[in-house]
Q: What sequence folds into this?
């Protein structure tokens, strides 16, 4: 049982790394759109980023999430799998008993609550690095870029410098800016992530098969990701704005103030900004994540059986 618990964390790390590689370019577009930089449409955002920053602009800040989100994903899958087994052990006296809907919901909610401890700082640093553009400064100061006269220096030289700057300027609490919004996003978000995945995997897998095929895992993971990220968009917008806030100036005092200002300035539609990118990005990113997780977990367990 102990080795299987460790296997979940290791497999989650592999899945997280796969998801970052697949999803980071669209994640950059999503972050830029949600932070309110005047890009307008998704297509215009893609063109603007490419024109001003070339292909490298879509991978800005990727080195940090490639390492950190892999660790974060390891924790997410490790917590979910172990919580699910613990609940099954408590309710059915068998950790491998098929979970009921309530069991999956409880394990998902626990995962969402605990994961913010690691995910909050990871997301914050990723977004701060993604937001280092002159467009962002001009948009927030209400100035036209051609008349500002600014020679913008990047606020952060890299992930380590970013963490150090935040700690120095905002203290430890600064690393958890936007965490309240993240909790409100992730607790229901993980319910709409793991529950659809579990049921879709069972539905797609033919009867008599001991485990789902790679295609079943890929398809179920992709659909679950699109559902989860699509429905999480309103609170994801608030979280992104709070975390992007502070790169050059502070605009929001908290979740309620961010919601109020965003609604007052841009209307209800602002909370669905990036919906298309979230849903589209959610499919390949989550498909890669679950496929990486399941395949590596099977390989680890097969190796453990061979060594026993």
A:
């Amino acid at each position: 049982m102990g080795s299987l618990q460790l296997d979940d964390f290791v497999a989650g790390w592999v899945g997280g790394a796969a998801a970052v590689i697949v999803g980071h370019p669209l994640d950059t577009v999503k972050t830029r759109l949600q932070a309110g930089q005047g890009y307008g449409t998704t297509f215009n955002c893609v063109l603007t980023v490419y024109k001003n920053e070339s292909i490298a602009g879509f991978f800005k800040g990727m080195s940090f999430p490639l390492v950190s989100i892999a660790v974060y994903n390891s924790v997410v899958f490790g917590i979910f799998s172990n919580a699910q087994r613990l609940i099954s052990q408590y309710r059915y006296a068998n950790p491998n008993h098929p979970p009921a809907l309530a069991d999956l919901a409880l394990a998902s909610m626990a995962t969402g609550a605990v994961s913010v401890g690691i995910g909050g700082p990871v997301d914050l640093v990723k977004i701060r690095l993604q937001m280092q553009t002159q467009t962002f400064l001009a948009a927030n100061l209400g100035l036209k870029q051609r008349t500002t006269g600014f020679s913008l220096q990047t606020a952060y030289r890299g992930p380590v410098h970013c963490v150090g700057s935040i700690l120095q300027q905002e203290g430890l609490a600064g690393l958890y800016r936007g965490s309240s919004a993240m909790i409100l996003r992730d607790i229901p978000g993980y319910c709409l992530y793991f529950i659809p995945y579990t049921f879709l995997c069972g539905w797609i897998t033919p009867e008599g098969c001991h485990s789902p095929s790679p295609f079943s895992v890929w398809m179920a993971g992709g659909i679950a990701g699109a559902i989860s990220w699509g429905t999480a968009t309103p609170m994801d917008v608030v979280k992104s704005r709070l975390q992007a806030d502070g790169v050059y100036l502070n605009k929001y005092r908290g979740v309620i103030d961010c919601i109020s200002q965003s609604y007052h300035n841009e209307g209800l539609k602002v909370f669905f900004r990036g919906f298309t990118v979230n849903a589209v990005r959610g499919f390949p990113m989550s498909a890669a994540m679950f496929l990486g997780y399941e395949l590596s977990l099977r390989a680890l367990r097969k190796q453990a059986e061979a060594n026993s």
Notes: The chain has a mean pLDDT of 84.
